[in-house]
Amino acid sequence: KKDAENLLKQRIGEVAAGRRVGSEKATIEDLCNLVIADAEMRKLDDVQHVKWRYVAHIKPIFGSLLASRFGQAQIREYIKQRRAEDASNGTINRELAIVRRGFRLGAQEEPPFVLRQPAFPMLKENNVRQGFIERPQYETLLAELPENLRALFVCGYHVGARKNELRRIEWDQVDFEARVIRLTAGQTKAKVSRVLPIYGDVELWLRKQQETAPPRNRYVFHGARGCPVDNHLLGWGRSL
What we know:
Elements: H1 2-16, H2 28-41, H3 47-62, H4 72-84, H5 89-108, H6 135-144, H7 147-159, H8 163-166, E1 174-175, E2 180-183, E3 194-197, H9 202-212, H10 236-239
Helix pairs in contact: 2-3, 2-5, 3-5, 7-9
């Protein structure tokens, strides 16, 4: 009885709002919002990136499309359009993965948002990393980068850590005396704590960050208002 009463209240609220989400009315936007809400609930590290991918690329193409009308033709058209915008296969796969997860979560809703889950093809990716940045390239890139990204670039070049590991480093993890930066298990992709060496140009640029940091700032590589520099603004993959 209690479950029925709660469901009735939910339906009354939906009617009052002029809209009820169900398999006949659910849109791709509704499904992607489920993905974002799920990522926020589970406190996933990439939630901001998921939001950005959806708003920047998925929503303009699919946002208002009914989920019931989504299928292989729409997937093919999306791939064609994103390739025309020079998006890589890996980028397209990550974007379509959001929609695919939306269908899975939508099928689990009560009542379900969708009655079927289309197949999503995986495009072939070339993830093999080749070559290294030589010193002349490093110096050229350093000169071209915005001032607020240079210290992060220098540190990344020297220690080879992932940008998401670096951007969340706090000052209490930097030990100038021992010449190391200590990453916690929660900061690394492998969930294992790690130590990064401070050598070469790293200390010089860390000191510059320290001198220019906003008052009471926690993060070494800070963006607006002292928060970690925004992940989607870095674009290192394309830049390099």
